[in-house]
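User: Please predict the structure of the protein below. I'd like the answer in structure-token form so I can feed it into my own downstream comparison script.

Assistant: Understood. Taking the following sequence of 685 residues as input:
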Amino acid sequence: MTNRLAQTKSLYLRKHAENPIDWWPWCDEALATAKTQDKPIFLSIGYSSCHWCTVMEGEAFSDQAIAEYMNANFLPIKVDREERPDIDSIYMQALQMMSGQGGWPLNVFLSPEDLVPFYAGTYFPLEPKYNRPGFLQVLEALRRYYDTEKEDLRQRKALIVESLLTSAVLKGEATQEAEESELFRRGWETNTGVITRNEYGNSFPMIPYAELALRGTRFNFASRYEGEQISTQRGLDLALGGIYDHVAGGFHRYTVDPSWTVPHFEKMLYDNGQIVEYLANLWSAGVQEPAFARAVTGTVAWLQREMTAPAGYFYAAQDADSFTTPTDTEPEEGAFYVWSYAELEQLLTPTELTELQQQFTVSPQGNFEGKNVLQRRHQGELSATIETALGKLFAARYGRAANTLETFPPAQDNQEAKTTHWPGRIPSVTDTKMIVAWNSLMISGLARVAAVFQQPVAGELAAKAANFILENQFVDGRFYRLNYRGEAAVLAQSEDYALFIKALLDLHAATPENRFWLEKAIALQHQFDEFLWSVELGGYFNTASDASQDLIIRERSYIDNATPSANGVAIANLVRLSLLADDLHYLDLAEAGLKAFKAVMSSAPQACPSLFTALDWYRNSTLIRSTTEQIHTLIPSYLPTVAFAVVSNLPDNSVGLVCQGLKCLPSAASVEMLLQQVQQSQNRG
């Protein structure tokens, strides 16, 4: 027998549809029922490719005794954080305030009358272990607390609300009024330090940090960090490491070690979009490492083969776990991707295996639970022998050679994965929903790849996905965040607006002679400003003014996580729009946005690299006016604060005009003079 979640569209929510817990989705009826029945709300937030979310679903959430107690004493609500990042952000912040750490699954207990949290945690085991109490013990203790400690509960909630409101308002000025140039220098240095190689812990892509590190190299700051070397090393770690799928393309979420060897095997669209854009920028900046080009080409091929819907949009994610046989009850992490030494001996010739061992981390002992994750040992081109060997591994995994496999259909749930007759291995489940923000990151990446590597297919994929969003994500004039099989759902949030406007501007930057993308960006920016701009505080709220009634606070995203912050991207967009639309109103908004976040940029620069990228745009924005032909020779170059405008009425004997901020320089009589002006303009801050 299924619960209410069986009727939802979210893959993550439907995974809990057969739990004995009487789950509700987040909705007005659920909130009202909890209030009427005076039941504390148990709010559980996760996402479909979250490993520990899956573990808890199979343990505590499937246990009959826990379900009986939960159903009698709490109102249980399930939320997909990919559907509602605004809800997730608020309660994740509450967890971090209570415990000093965060993560998913995010399990929070709320008072029904005001939705204020009074306790929160992540994974709760079924029985006491890992130094954690059993979940039933937690439930019993919290229900007892809710019933008997009303005054303590009131005081506890008051402190939490005060902390959340203070954080949301961002009161206070920087302790010292720093000059913008020094503020940027310190922000660049701090964030470059964040991505220096560590000797312990997990390794994440952290592309907003890497992008800032790279763009700051043009200033030649005196620093304890060598920005060029650190930026390049981040690219090498990604393109050579086990985080990249060397057999079939695409990047995994992160590695569980500091050596970039063994990944957590899920593949997220948002990582892949950011990484290909970063590698393309590294290449255009002069770091033309062959491994970068191979990783970009392989990722575009993976995207086209496995992550692109027939309608043109991109799927959200592929799980880390997969089944090895149809009779398995539980999937295994990494099973689709790793290789036993015996398999390699069977599939490859002795010569191929020997060379594979020389070039990759391959051994009889393996590097992941007795099996091998492929990690490259050296830079440079791979030999024909290695490419042949990797092609054989591709055919073993997928059941067909890469050049004959145009599309590989997704397994949309565990049942489909186990019952479909796959010619190779059983693949991981793919979450096929369309998320505007994540699609936008991939569109931006593909637009840059198309320009830098001259890959028309990347540009075509980007344009098709952008057109899908333009044609399907507006309902009664309003912009929507998600699409489930042709149906738009959930009003767009700040990251959807900011990242899609950036994607449209990036498409325009790749083809500036076509004003279509720019006009669409301007129109969407108008709606963004109308519904999400904070007139009192500056910056953009996470949710629209008419979609925030069920939230205890309205936040403004400025912290970079796995994806760049909405306000960092939005402020940079405003500067670009001021150049391209010749409208200083956008520059006024950008200035107000930077002012709103200046205190946090000064006090916690490591939290907000995207705001420093926006500051770079604000201080060094440059517009090149020239002919289509001339501009297309410049587009592949690394010009991080440049926008292009096609004009036909240049002064006589001129190749172009360079405008910096509110003034234009003398017309350039030669390409050399134009480039000299551009470099000076980009470094004036």
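That's the full token string. The CA atoms of residues 343 and 393 lie 9 Å apart.
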